[in-house]
Amino acid sequence: MKQIKGFSLLEVAIILVIIGVLLSGGITLFNILTKKQQTEKLKNKVDVVYENILAYASINKKLPNSLDDLKIDVYDSGTNKLLYKSATTTDICNEAVNNLLTVNDKVSGYVNNRVAFIVFSRGDNRCNQTGDTSGTNFTIEKPENNVNCIDNTPGASLPYDDIVRYITIDDLRQKICSSFTITTTSLPDGVMHQAYPSVQIEATNGVKPYTFSLVSGSGNLPPGLTLNSDCTISGTPTQAGTYSFTVQVKDNEGKIATKRFSITIQPNKPRITTEFLPYGQVNQGYCAVVTASGGKTPYTYTVSGLPSGLSYDTNCGSCATNDKGECIHGTPTQAGSFSVSISVRDSNGDSDSKTLTLTINPELVSGGGSSSSSGGGSSGSSSGGSGGGSGGGGSGGSNQVCVYNNTGAKKDFKLTDGTCITVDDQVVAQCIQSTDTGKLYLYTSSSGNCKGSELGYTDYSWAKSKDANGDGKVNFNSDGTISDR
Fold first, then answer.
1. In whole angstroms, what is the distance from residue 472 CA to residue 391 CA?
2. In terms of Cα–Cα distance, which of 272, 313, 305 is closest to 290?
3. What percent of the chain is predicted at pLDDT more than 90?
4. Distance of alpha carbon 165 from the chain centroid
5. Hey, do 181-266 and 271-361 end up sharing a CATH topology, with the first three levels equal?
6. What is the pLDDT of residues 254-309, one digit of tens each?
7. Which CATH architecture group holds 181-266?
8. What is the pLDDT of residue 101?
9. pLDDT band for position 5 (cuts 50, 70, 90)
10. Which class for 440: exposed (0-12), middle (13-18), buried (19 or more C-beta within 10 A)?
11. From the candidate CATH numbers 2.60.40.10, 3.30.470.10, 1.10.1740.10, 3.50.50.60, the one assigned to the domain spanning 271-361
12. Does the structure show a pLDDT above 80 at 329?
C-alpha cells in the first residue's frame, strides 16, 4: 500500500491564508449587499412619504404642517424620523409663496431656488448631511464626498448617504392645481346712452393679485366703455353694434390666461311716446303734452299742423308740460280733424317723428230753456212716457243737455252727488247744466237703489259734443255711449 504524505506546515499556512481571504471577502460582500438592501429600503420609505405629501396637497391645496399630518409611518428605522421642510402651509394654488426653499443639487449640478418642500432620510450613517430644517437652504452632495454631520452626530465627517426627495412650486402646482383660467363665460349686452351694467371678469387658480388687459390687436370695447384695473367693465356706450375682443389676465407669478368676449350694444334712438292727442272744442281751453323716451337727453321737439288758436311752446300756464317745459295749449277757433306732425331730436342727433290726429269739436249751441219732470218747454220737447213727464229744451235759454235712457228697460242713473233717479224707457233721465262738472253713471238695476254694476257714464261736455242737431237732447245707451236723440 502506498503511504499518503501529509501537508507540510507551509502548505497548511497557505491554505489557512486562502480560507481567511475567502471568509473576509464573503463578509465584505455580505456587508455590501446588506447595506444596499438597507439603502433601498430607506429610499422606498422616502418615496412613500413623498407621494403621501403630494396626495395631501392635492386634497387640501396646501402642504402639511408636519409629517404627523399624514397619519402614516414616517420613520426610516427605529426612532429615526424622516426630516421634512415646507416653504408654505397656505393655499398653494391661489396665494403667493414668498419663502421658497433653495436646494443645491451637486449631483445634477443645478441650484433650484423655487422648491416647495423637501423630505429626506439621514441614511445608513444616521447623520443629517443635507440641511437644517429650521432654515431654507439644503445641499445634496455626491456620494463619494465626505460631509460633516449637521446634527453633530459622532463621526463628524462621513461619506454622504442621505436619501432626498423634493419638488418645485411650479411642478407641484401643475400636479395639484387646476389650470389658470378666466371663469367668466360671457358679458351682458348694453343699450346705447344707458349706463352699462357693471360686470367683473374673474379668473381662478392663479396667484393673486391679477392684472387684466386687452390683447393688442384683438378688437376693442364698445365706445364709451372701459376695462378697469380690477377688471370691471363700466361706462356708458355711445354707439350700437357688436364688439369682440380678447381679455388677458396675468397672475402674480407671471402665468397668463386669455378669453374671447363679445358685447352687443342695442340701439337706443329717441321715440315719441305720445300715442294720441285728446279731443278739443272750439272756444274751450286746450292742453296736451308731447313726450319722448330713449336716446340721449336733452331733446328738441318740433310740432306743426296745429289748428288755429293752438301753439306749441313753454307758455303753458297751469297745463302739464314735458321734460322741456313745453306743451300744446291755447283756445281752438276752428273745428275739424287736423294732422299734427311731431318730431323729436336728441343731443346725439338721432330723431323720431310721428303724425297724430287732433279732433276739435264744434262749439255747442244752447239747447233751450230748462226742463222739468212735468214736461213742457217751448222747443225741443220730448213726449212723455209711462213713468214721468217730458223733458227737453224749453224756453229760457239755459245751457243744458238732457240725457235720455235709450235701453228699452228700467235703469238707474246716478249723479256724482249721490242722487239716484229711476226711470222707464224713453223717459228723460236728467238734464245736466253747464255748471255741472260731475259725471252721470248708468247702472244695471231695476230696484231703484243704484246697487247694480256700473255700465258707463257721461259728463256735460261729452254729452253736448254728441248733440249733433243742437236740440239739447241725447241718448245714453246701455253700453255707456252717447248718441244724438
1. 10
2. 272
3. 45
4. 48
5. yes
6. 889 999 999 999 998 899 999 889 889 999 999 999 999 988 889 999 999 999 99
7. Sandwich (2.60)
8. 97
9. low
10. buried
11. 2.60.40.10
12. yes
Contacts of 424 (CB under 8 A, 6+ apart): 385, 386, 387, 388, 405, 410
Contacts of 261 (CB under 8 A, 6+ apart): 184, 186, 187, 201, 244, 245, 246, 247
Helix (H) or strand (E) holding 176: helix 169-176
Enumerate the domain spans of the chain.
Answer: 35-176, 181-266, 271-361, 400-484
The single-letter DSSP state of residue 68 is G
Omega before residue 237 within 30° of 0, cis: no
- DSSP-assigned letters across all residues of 302-369: EEE-PPTTEEEES--TTS---TTS-EEEE-----EEEEEEEEEE-TTS-EEEEEEEEEEEPPPPP--B
Grid cell, residue 98, equals 414668498
**Amino acid (1-letter code) at residue 126:** R
3-class secondary structure, 139? strand
C-alpha cell at 403: 240725457
Three-state secondary structure call for residue 404: strand
Other CB atoms closer than 10 Å to residue 331's CB: what's the count?
14
CB-neighbour burial class of residue 294 (10 A; exposed 0-12, middle 13-18, buried 19+):
buried
- 75-77 vs 271-272, strand pairing mode: unpaired
Helix axes 9-60 and 169-176, enclosed angle (nearest 10): 60
End-to-end Cα, the chain, rounded Å? 175
CA distance 161 to 209: 43
Residue for grid cell 283756445: 331
Q: Record the pTM.
A: 0.48
Instruction: Output phi, psi for 44, to 5 deg.
Output: -60, -40
Q: Which residue type does 437 have?
A: T
Q: Give me the amino acid identity at 198.
A: S
The three-class DSSP label of residue 412 is strand
What strands, in cross-sheet order, belong to the sheet with 454-459?
420-423, 411-415, 439-443, 454-459
Q: Find the angle CA(352)-CA(357)-CA(359) to the nearest 5 degrees.
A: 150
- Contact between residue 483 and residue 406 where contact means Cβ atoms under 8 Å apart: yes
Enumerate the β-bridge partners of residue 388: 385
- Category of 260 on φ-ψ map: left (φ > 0), alpha (ψ -120 to 50) or beta: beta
Q: 28 CB contacts (<8 Å, ≥6 apart)? A: none
Q: Which residues have a Cβ under 8 Å from the Cβ of 84 and sit 6 or more positions away?
A: 49, 53, 66, 67, 74, 117, 118, 119, 133
